[in-house]
Structures are given as C-alpha cells and as structure tokens.
Predict the structure.
Amino acid sequence: MSFQTNKRGTGHLLRGMNRFFCRNWHRLSVSGEALPEGPVILVSNHLCGLDPLLIQAAVNRPLRFLMSREYYHKMWYARRGFDLAGAIPVNPGGANRHAVREAIAAVRAGHALCLFPEGAANPPIPMHRILPGAALIARESGAPVVPLRVSGVLPFDHVHLWRSFYRRSRAEVVIGKPILLPDACAGRQGLDDDTHMIRHAICELAHVGLHTD
C-alpha cells in the first residue's frame, strides 16, 4: 500500500479536499483535545460511511483506518483512495490475524490508526458492545488510545449507502483525552477489562459535544 504521510503530494491534496468538503458541506465542528504526536490509536462510534472522512478532517495528521474487507472489495472504484489512506481491510468479528499484525506494525512505526470497534455502522443498539481489536492493538503496541464521538450526521440505514455523504448535516467530532491502558491481568479477562474501559471512554463523550445524537 502507498500510504502517504508527507506534507506534500497526492495524500496531502486529498486530505485538503476532504477537509474542505467536511467543513463546508457538512459544517463540521471539532471540540475537545488536540491529537498527540507519535503512535496513537483512535476509537470512535460508527454512524455511517462518512465517519472516516469527518475524523480525518478533524485532526491535523494523516490517519490509517481499519475498514470492512467487504466494502474494500465491493467499492473497487474507490480502492486507490483507500490504499492512499493506508486502509487495512478486516473481517469484523472474524479471523484477522494478518490485519491485526499489520495494524500493530503501523502503530509501532509511529502512525495514527483509527478504528470503529462496534464493527458495523449504526448498529441496532449503539455502543452496546464493542470488539476487542482496539484493546489488543493497544496492548501489543503500547500506544495511547484516544476516544472520539461522531454526531450530527444521517445514520447509515443499510440500504442507501451514499445518502449520508450528499445530505447536508451539522457534523461534530469530539476528541477525548488520551488514555493508557493499565497493566491489567493477562489473558481474556484483562482484554475484556481494557475493552470495557475503551467503550466507557467513548460513551462518556456523548455528554461533551455541542450537539446531541
């Protein structure tokens, strides 16, 4: 993949175009903390396919994303853009050893990685449960986790894929304080505890933003 972190070139141009689109058409507002430098893992609720664009527009550095392998292959016409953004295809809830290794390597290399631990956009009960991938990557890389909260956009209805992109909105991204996972007990219990902490941090941001979901 040809992920670009330099301040010039195609990646920089695409991020600039995306920022213009999100801030003008979707009237994006950003509040909360500044994103730290160095390796970091961003975790967010997931309303629709627009979320990655909003989050990238909300921060001042290029992000890599975990994305559904189904959409990576189905949206073949956008695959070049996914590759430029350093997307890592995964099977939500499935076997992802190679993808997890690639994600850990990316964070250890100093990149900012963003993922949506709910595993799907607009689940029936938002943030009711999340997958343990974020906690696993954080444990293996030692990177801090930054919770985010997206609101103000049209939720994905699993039928109209593009509606959230072209319908104007008052989008908001709230960036929380970085958290370092504690040295918890090893094994599944420790991973479950870390996952619960990450879920709680995202849910807490629902009370911080300017708008309500």
